[in-house]
Fold:
Amino acid sequence: MPDPAPDVDHLLDVAVAALGGSPREGQRRMANQVAEAVEKGEHLLVQAGTGTGKSLGYLVPSVRHAVVADERVVVSTATLALQRQVMTRDLPLVADALAPELPRTPRIALLKGWHNYVCVHKTSGGYPPDDQGMLFDLGDRGAAEHPSTTDPADGEDAGKESLGAQVVRLREWADATETGDRDDLVPGVTDRAWRQVSVTSLECLGQRCPLLEECFPERARAAARSADVVVTNHAMLGVAASGSPHVLPEHQVLVVDEAHELADRVTAQSTAELSVGSIEHAGRMARRHGGIATTELDSAATALGAALIHLPEGRFTQGLPEGTRQAVAMVRDAARGLLSALRPEKPAAGEAAPADSGLKIATSSVLALFEVAERMAAEADDQKYTVLWCSRAERDGATRLYAAPLAVNGLIRTHLLSGRASVLTSATLSLGGEFRSMARSIGLEGAGEAAAATATAATVAVSAPGGSEGTQLDLPKPAPAAQAPASLPWHGVDVGSPFDYPKQGILYIARRLPPPGREPATDAQLDEIEALITAAGGRTLGLFSSRRAAVAVGEAMRERLDVPVLVQGEDQLPTLVKQFAADEPTCLFGTLSLWQGVDVPGRSNQLVIIDRIPFPRPDDPVKSARSEAVAASGGNGFMSVSATHAALLLAQGAGRLIRSTGDRGVVAVLDPRLSTARYGEFLTRSLPAFWRTTDREVALGALRRLAVPPEATAPTA
Structure:
């Protein structure tokens, strides 16, 4: 009979052998730290450098604890690629390998947002189809429910198909699939096509659906409720943190991979948007599917449109201007009236309420509008912990209002971390050489007044008719969340990396250059980039602070150099990365998507160029508001917000260079402030421990030596 509590080291050896790997000291240390934290119910931050094998470092102790202690573990990943790796490769192999060593076979499950599954009621014709008008009205409404599952390659092949052909293929697939999961559809389809066969959680009929037993998202949730380990993603955590904790099954342990992205994902999920287009869409749905007049809402849309015409872009530090606030209040009041009009009649005693799909569509649209308007129309005193701003989209010129919480650490602490053990891991958690900045950002330490205020749900929770939550459409009021302590006990550990950074890489800071200005690139920077790429023989990943800079430098290098230069946006990102990896002389330039997640080991990537320290834009409404809040409370807003943001991105960008023990290269930062400014040391302490120099010739000489093929330097017989 197997030991009821097998040793973690032994289980790790078993799992590593099953995956065909070899033991790593950092991985072993991580596994033991994770095991101790989950057994004691503690909170742990684990920095595990590239190559550590952190997936097994947390999966092995998680599976062990879930089975032995009979406590469910939820594992969250930041990206679709990592979620696929964990769920289709790492976790099943770990579960199978450890099954003979544990009291019983581990049960695993995958859980995504509602919109990621096909709706069998809709594909069977029982749900009102999206017509062409509705198709274009929806925008990103559904995708926002689960943005982290969007893959840059999704729909790449589908772009060659007509919308109708995609929908036909989707319906055929829906009849054959066993999961209903969009990611299992190959090739993929566009978002517009997917909306024809899916619904959001608000639009779902819930327990009143006649095809409930065949419902794919319901099946996924049922599997999650009976699983030992459930794999989900940060967008789902964002929904839970924003006041909908029941989107996740009950669990006693939370493991967050790529935890450095958690606060931003929760912020994005908690950000509300209001525009004339969103109001008109809700009105159309109410008329089409609810059969009611929307005269007051139409008038409110006109009033808001008039107010937005002259509204300046940027943040409103004192709440919305009075005229705009009154227009938003008109929207709120009109939406409230429509919710009452859409309330279904109560069935006679003993009769079941009818499942009205059209009514559910109308109600969910108006309800979403009401919640946003209610939040934005609050008096200035009630907006103390809300960031409000106006922005005009470049693609369509539409003006939109936005509202985001001033802080999300209270939401994360209250809804995600309090009352359970947690493990938060990433290759970049220690910023400036310590974990406190990250601990504060996720609510483990030092909650200020703003953070405490955001522990209350950021949105108004209202149940729509027909849903599993019942039929309550009385005037809703925000309910305060259960209060968590201002901080939680935690500790951080850096388990290191198998890479020898001082011997494998050089950090070259171009101290001789002038500080970067407003222009995309200075002549001095272009000369420096040309010299570096020439010395490297291409093989360059260029990370730029803006798309304008990436394009400008790309065009300049094509004129100056004979090596191929690819620029993000010229093709699908996965295609560009494959071309970059396959051809050694090729260079790839891009922006934020390339700073994180690009994994190109070997000789194709021996030079990483960073054009400037990636501070947030000065006009970023949320970060500027947070910086001011820190300063108002006596702290250093620049260091707490801007420098921390820059340190995280720099660490992620520099981490693109060394991806295996055989990699060698140079990270060249063209911003002299990294060496001359007072905050420079904080930023460099956040980077891998490369050998550091400001000598241009040292960097160029190293690149020239690396550019020589190994066979060219091999001794002859």
In short: The chain has 29 helices and 18 strands. The first helix runs from residue 8 to 18. The radius of gyration is 27 Å.
